[in-house]
Structure prediction request, 306 residues.
Amino acid sequence: MSSRLPPRSPSSDPYLHTRRLTSRDRLLLSWLAEHYLLSTRQVAKALFPSGRSARLRLTLLHRIEAVDRFVDEAAADSTQYLYALGPLGLRLNRDAYHDPDNPAAKPPRSNRDRADRIVGSRKLRHLLGVNDFFTDLLAHARTDSRARLERWWSEQHATDAYGGAGVQPDGHGVWTVGDATVGFFLEHDNGTEPLGRVLAKLRAYERVTEFGPRYPVLFWVPSRGRERNLLDALAGTSAAMPMATAVRGTNPAGPVWTLTSDPDRRRHLHELPSDHGPYAATNPNRFVRRDLEPEPGTEPITQTPL
Prediction:
């Protein structure tokens, strides 16, 4: 009788599903770790050539418990799911943010506990709106070889990085087209906050410019009327950082941005003025574009001027 053990069946391999994950799968899981959830449509436009190929891959990822999913009851399309990390995805991203309403909350006991916090969050639609902005940029980059989203930080990530100044942006990104690189802070405006409260946020962004970058603050608003009211309120406002407005439903990479300091024409996102700030200990999150900028201690290449 042979003493050899029978070969292990594939189903008994605890790392089988992990090894099946592609680099694209892992990128998606890292987004879900930081940004909580994405819709079928957002995943498709950011990562896949078609909606069908996205749905097929997401079905597989759900089957192997890399992602969890639930129906988006606000969507007209019954095939529209919202995706969060599943057990496998959470195991591979142990530093995932775990509560959109209370960042200081105790970590969830399971992926289901985390998903319950996301689904029950008062910020659910707001999170999807912010993520729509960034996935629109990613979709644009898929059609333009010169364009790329260099940095996509969530509200919690950006607040951790710049919270010393009191800012709490809805998101932070760095966008490149060709030789132009623009950092920005996003304010996803739903038109429900009084304009006075919106303007009060600018003081914190002013404090960031004292030690860090001078990035434009982008107000992504729901209607032309809201944009006009906001531009009127900002007219004549003196600020160290640029401010720009645009209306949702347009391509955020395109010529849709109105600078409050020069409202007579609309600019592409990469045409907005931007300054990454000094190479200094006070600016530890300074963005460095490796293919253009020299190492710290040498003369930096000037980016889009203020």
Notes: Confidence is low (pLDDT under 50) at residues 297-306.
